[in-house]
Hints:
Elements: H1 2-24, E1 29-33, E2 39-42, H2 44-50, H3 54-57, H4 62-65, H5 68-83, E3 88-96, E4 102-113, E5 119-128, H6 139-170, E6 174-180, E7 189-193, H7 196-201, H8 205-210, H9 213-217, H10 221-237, E8 241-248, E9 254-265, E10 271-279, H11 281-298, E11 303-308, E12 313-316, H12 318-324, H13 328-331, H14 336-339, H15 348-358, E13 360-368, E14 374-385, E15 391-400, H16 402-421, E16 428-432, E17 438-441, H17 443-449, H18 453-457, H19 461-464, H20 467-481, E18 487-495, E19 501-510, E20 517-523, H21 525-560, H22 564-578, E21 583-590, E22 596-604, E23 613-616, H23 622-628, E24 633-635, H24 644-653, E25 655-664, E26 670-678, H25 686-784, H26 790-799, H27 801-833, E27 841-843, H28 845-855, H29 857-860, E28 870-874, E29 881-883, H30 885-909, E30 918-926, E31 930-937, H31 967-978, E32 982-988, E33 992-1000
Parallel strand pairs: 28-30
Antiparallel strand pairs: 1-2, 1-5, 3-4, 4-5, 6-7, 6-10, 8-9, 9-10, 11-12, 11-15, 13-14, 14-15, 16-17, 16-20, 18-19, 19-20, 21-22, 21-26, 22-23, 24-25, 25-26, 27-29, 30-31, 31-33, 32-33
Amino acid sequence: MQKEYAELQKRLEESETLLQVSFSQAPMGMVQCGLEGQIWQANQKFCQIVGYTVQELRSRSFEDLTHPEDLNRELVWAKKLVKGEIDSYSLQKRYLRKDGAIARVSLRVNLVRDGKGLAHSLMGFITEITDDQGKIHPFKDEVRQEKAERERAEAALHEYEARFERLAKTLPGMVYQYRQYLNQPGEDIFTYVSPACREIYELEPEAVLNNCHLMWQIIHPEDSTGFADSFIRAAQTGKEWYYQWRIITSSGKLKWLQGAAKKSPQPDGAMLWDGMVLDITDRKLAEESMRQQIEMLDQANDSIIIRDLNNQIEYWNQGAQRLYGWSLTEVRGEYIHEFLQTRFPEPLSEIMAICLREGHWRGELVHTKRDGTPVVVESRWTLQRDEQNHPRAILEINTDISDRKQAEQALKDSEARFRTTFEQAAVGVAHVDFEGRFIRINQRFCDIVGYSKAKMLALTFQEITHPDDLDVDWELAQQVKREQITHYSIEKRYIRQDQTWIWVNLTVAMEQDGNYWISVVEDISDRKQAESDRLKSEAKLREKVAREELLNRLTSQIRNSLDLNRILQTVVTELHRVLTLDRCYFLWHETEPTAVWSCIQEAKRPNLDSFLGEYPIPENNSLYGQLTAGEMVWCDDLVQSPDPDWHSIYLEQGFSAILLVPLRKNNGKLGVICCATLGEPRTWKTSDFELLEAVRDCMEIAISQAQLYKDATARSQKLEQTLKELQKAQTQLIQSEKMASLGQLVAGIAHEINNPVSFIFGNIIHAREYLSDLLEVVELYDQHYPNPGPEIMDKVEQVDLEFLKEDFSKLLDSMEQGAIRIREIVTSFRTFSRYDEAALKDVEIHSGIESSLMILKNRLDSQGNRPEIEVIKNYGTLPKVQCFASELNQVFINILTNAIDAIDEAYSRQKNRQELGKIWIQTQVLPGDRIAIQIKDNGCGVAENALPHLFDPFFTTKPIGKGTGLGLATSYQITVDRHKGGLQCTSTPGIGTEFTLELPIHQDQFHKDEKG
């Protein structure tokens, strides 16, 4: 279809070319102008008449070329022509040539209309009437010549139109011309539609010419947007339009269409599209069917290739890509035999002749892969024919048989080598039947096993094979016989005639016809001996390296750690691994209260019981004496030892061999390393003793350093503890002195205020009685002397007696409330100071909290830009708690003061803070005879890195001059040390802080002597 479409386009282009040639080479001048007079195109003859090129004319109008004296006359006719009043006009006129001369011409102008009959352009036919002398021919000749030229031009035009119409009817697709107005979408029209519109769209061409939307309405909904966008892209990019889409015809058919068009901009701003539409429904269905077939071919394991008769590759499946390494894109169009460097079993021309004659061919080929390696394939060719039964292409299916060919070749080469080198081979060669009897044998084989040929032919290979190697050899031989494997190679031992055995490398394969085995034997005794010596040397070297690594690790352990237990564990673990022991452990000799061996570290096999613990030392034990003298003691075989001490160890512990290494600390305490094996005896080697000597030296140094480190650490910890206690005592002394002074001051103030308050309370009572008596007297006067004198009335009015009677009582009530308030403050002072309650007392915790809040009331009130702090109380039902009341009040004051400071700091950081400052106080009883007091605020919070140091003496998060760093440290001491409780703090920066106090309800067990 693509070829047909290309052919159609070619024919259209040829037709257009013919039209252009006819226009260009016409014997008379021809020029096409727009309705405004601008020149669109002109032929060669017209260019000769006016002396301008085509490019120069396109920037001019016919008015620019017309003689001024002839212009007005022609404009009258031209306007009538454009308005449609006339279809043509003829006249004689003068043109102004480029060289300044004047050309006299005879002019005929026709109106060109589009498909809707609207005026499109003007076509002028010009005949020059100026002779060589510049004189005009007689008028009759001019008319006759003009008429003849016009008739020839019209005839050529009619012929062109007829040829184009015939061509459009014979084309398999629809030819069209579409005029598109980019800025006026509603004005788009088809100016020409060929008759194929009926077959493709099921629409009449005349209907489409009248309404272009008939075509757009039947576009498949899924393709309509893409179709429109493709036209827009083509118009914007200047490229040819090409698109495939679907339509649904009036009869309900779904069709696939393919369109292509070229555009040409028009002087009026429109875009003229000349194009063709093809029905490709059948091709699409064929493509889908072909796609499914190609998918099936791609899934095949074999290489499937389709090539044309010129051997150019058309198709190449995934199997071919896997086999050769190239993709279809890389090989399409390549000449297959040159590309794959094919090697044929016979000339290619003969193979092709067979394939063309018989329709198929089969054989083996050698190809070259992408990586350069050759591959042998079994190739099957099948001739494909077209609908006329003409040979079209060849289907080639190739199967990789390289492995099989290599195996076959290897076997052939092996058999040939055996035949030619059997007797003179440098290795032993024998033919053996399936019972194991020797059929043929060369001299080298006899030399290896030490038998003569005659004796060998009377033996079987089973009789001379070492018993430990026979089963493997026989099983592999049977696999070769059953063709499960083609051959095998093993290392085995033969028993020589002198009963010594020899190592050989044996290779066995099947004879070509499968009648017997072929055995090839190579003497490898020297290599085996060299390997044995090398392995022994490597084993010694590895053992030495392992022991050096052990010493290095121990030395590093001593340098990096002074933990004695860790050092001892490392020693027994490494010795257990390096010496391949069943058990390795370390013993201390303890003398108090009785003499025992104390096993403190061990390393053992997982299935053995632990040996950790204490073991009594038998009296008169000779081994103990040797160990205390610093001697190593050992026994290679405890079972056979005549020494009863060794034998008792075997009976009690089950050891078969043992090695004891003593070492001493500086204080004289004896330590022993014990190395033991179970089961088989063990001969302790000199290298073992050397290693243990070095280990003992390291351990004695480690023990000495560990003891020194332990002593130094103990002294350091003691000094640190003393320093902390001094610091703590100093802090407590400072704070206690401070609170004692504050308590005395508060108690003194409370005492001094209490006296005048009592005086006020006492006088208020009498004042009320006096007031009552006076008011009664006044009432009596009012009753008995209802008409007092003017002076008394003036005075009554002046002092407002009625108001005085009413307000004086209220005045006394206010004085009484003020005195009560002062008494509450004094009570809070006394509660806070507890100056008379310094001993352990049963106290109401809530009263202490309330007194602290009373003292801090002025801090809780609004200050500056910070509003009043709200205190939210959630008190539980608490029993009386045994505590030092004044000290505990000090804790409340410190924590509440910090909460207020944190809220103030939050307001100073956040100038426009909207959240009100709040303090939550919650109390509750906890399990275990304890209570909890939680004080939480929504202040600025404490940084995470400061939390661990919050209770350290002299540590403060406040600015310099605003905190001493003793408040929370003292609170911690009072809560934790003094009351055996707990004090914890959690905080989130920017959110707030929470302190939790936990106190025992009873302190009897902690302060028996301090209870009042």
